[in-house]
Write the structure tokens for this entry.
Amino acid sequence: MRIPSPLRSYTGQATVAEARGTTVDEILSDLDRQYPGIRFRIVDEQGRLRRHMRVFVNDEMTRDLATIVMSDDEVTLLQALSGG
């Protein structure tokens, strides 16, 4: 999983992290097991992706945490930027 710059403080500045699971949700849970607190920055209290977060499985963006992920898929997290 590729980690965006604003979340690298959770991963010790690592740009890539290994996480396991068969869905995006399971992968984010495994990521949080390894790097406590990172999931809360990605998923809100209602269990939905935060508005500013984007998740890509390979080259396809998804907002559905139930999206199936195969063992050879690449998951990328992006944080949308805003401002003027």
